[in-house]
């Protein structure tokens, strides 16, 4: 079921400053910022060759990233995203085994234009997991 690691997401209080660190200090290729109002974030993707780093900044007061940054003002790792071949089959298999899907269980379209779901961190060793249809 589990495919390759698509990205590691890092919540940041200042997307411009975080982007500059990856681009200017580390020499990485970074995308333009992309606002995702349905997820309450603005994102930038850092290409590392074998995977990506997703930098997340809150977009709006109701952003789940805002509450994360309230607890972690300097930012930090927010979630891991893995690819799956069939997101509905993965959801059904996970819920049958007792795993909790965040939200209503209906996939939303993510930053890559593909369906995504988030899994409860208490079910995955304290780590928020995102699944993205490959």
The CATH architecture term is Roll
Largest beta sheet, briefly? Answer: 9 strands, mixed
Residue share in helices?
Answer: 10-25%
Helix-strand category: alpha+beta
Order of helices and strands: EHEEEEHEHEEE
- Total strand segments: 9
Euclidean distance between termini CA atoms = 11 Å
Percent of residues in β-strands: 35-45%
Shape: globular
CATH superfamily: 2,3-Dihydroxybiphenyl 1,2-Dioxygenase, domain 1
Low-pLDDT parts are none
Helical run tally = 3
- Whole-angstrom Rg: 15 Å
In CATH terms, what is the fold-level topology? 2,3-Dihydroxybiphenyl 1,2-Dioxygenase, domain 1
Count up the domains: 1
CATH class bucket: Alpha Beta
Structure report:
The protein is of the alpha+beta class and about 130 residues long. It has a single domain (about 1-134), classed as 2,3-Dihydroxybiphenyl 1,2-Dioxygenase, domain 1 (Roll). The protein contains three helices and nine strands, in the order E-H-E-E-E-E-H-E-H-E-E-E. The chain has helices at about 15-25, 65-70, 85-95, and strands spanning about 1-10, 30, 35, 40-45, 50-60, 75-85, 110, 115-120, 130-134. Strands 1, 2, 3, 4, 5, 6, 7, 8 and 9 form a nine-stranded mixed beta sheet that branches. A hairpin with a 5-residue loop joins strand 7 and strand 8. It starts with a strand and ends with a strand. The mean pLDDT is about 95.
